[in-house]
């Protein structure tokens, strides 16, 4: 069955839909967690520490966190691999373009591939910046995420990269959530408006919620 | 009306093609688009040139033979087949671009004619019902609920012209394949092959080199028969169900 799914264009889209929804669920939790930064350094840093001790004493220190990380890595890899393979198939299926060109589909739909690449690169930078601290500006402090976030958004490029990526995220979710519903066969005529509205609301809330953090740092609300 | 036509000319499958420009005069707004092309071809024949090859058959909008991407739209600006498109949709002095369906699974044979046998092979893979041949069966022997009959009929309207493939930026045949699957899978007559039909037809569709669905909705916009985009959702649902049920 796994082979049937992976070898079929419909099946590979299912992999994209499921992995996309897993990442979307994570992003909702992540965005809500991020907003704790507005309650001050103490609460935010405590929350970050709690993420490492979730499930104790059954789970050892950071076990839950690593479990989530593994699921996310699997989801990102599955999503990107199927996107790459499906895109290759799509481009092969339409090798010659029409001479008479017309603007097609919505902006969100047309930017799925580029938006996805931008998001992939952003994730790499984001992890190197705020998880490992490898490319962090201004001295990365382990266990003090509040200070690290303020560092990052005190640089112009940190803000630019983040805001651009979050706008790409909004567009990606707008088309992606609705598409996932269709791929999983959950769409229907009666449910279509509700699904489109949910996609728009999710896209808007996530983008606004994430961008609130750099805006908070820029306006001095978080410092 | 006097029109400037820019038509895709290609000698054969292996030749390089290009757009050629022609002027046609004396076009009436009551002519169909194909009659306008007939006018052009008559002139070309009189001039001793090779007429433009294009597919057509019933000219009633029901056979699915005519194709043509007109000004970037499959079947042109109206939601109908090219044969049912009339010249009143254009203005005197217009320049009209005419191109063949574009997809690697639909190779150009000549000029505007493409090879659509890939669709036939998708149908052969499962677009049929196992029914005894002979006299028509008693109509009341197999009751079909009205909503199911309507659903089946809506999808049965697909004439297999390939406009969905031509309009799709991925050259996908999802709307065609889903129309056929939904049409038969909802009916009791189609029930014995419900799972194998969707699995085999989707596999054949992939095999033919059609692209995948990115839900741009271009196919449903271009479809002269109004097959809805949700048809693809239905096919996905049937495919997932069949994958769970059938062990392969």
Automatic annotation (TrEMBL), chain A:
NCBIfam families: sdhC_b558_fam (TIGR02046). Signal peptide: none annotated. The lineage of its organism: Bacteria, Bacillati, Actinomycetota, Actinomycetes, Kitasatosporales. InterPro entries: Cytochrome_b-558, SQR/QFR_C/D. The chain crosses the membrane at residues 21-41, 66-86, 107-128, 156-173, 194-217. GO terms for cellular component: membrane. It comes from Streptomyces caeruleatus. Keywords: Membrane, Transmembrane, Transmembrane helix. This is Succinate dehydrogenase.
From TrEMBL, chain B:
SUPFAM superfamilies: 2Fe-2S ferredoxin-like (SSF54292), alpha-helical ferredoxin (SSF46548). Gene3D superfamilies: 3.10.20.30, Alpha-helical ferredoxin (1.10.1060.10). Residues 149-178 form the 4Fe-4S ferredoxin-type domain. GO terms for molecular function: 2 iron, 2 sulfur cluster binding; electron transfer activity; metal ion binding. Residues 1-102 form the 2Fe-2S ferredoxin-type domain. The keyword Cytoplasm does not apply. One of its GO terms (biological process) is respiratory electron transport chain. The keyword Hydrolase does not apply. PANTHER family: SUCCINATE DEHYDROGENASE, SUCCINATE DEHYDROGENASE IRON-SULFUR PROTEIN. This is Succinate dehydrogenase. It comes from Streptomyces caeruleatus.
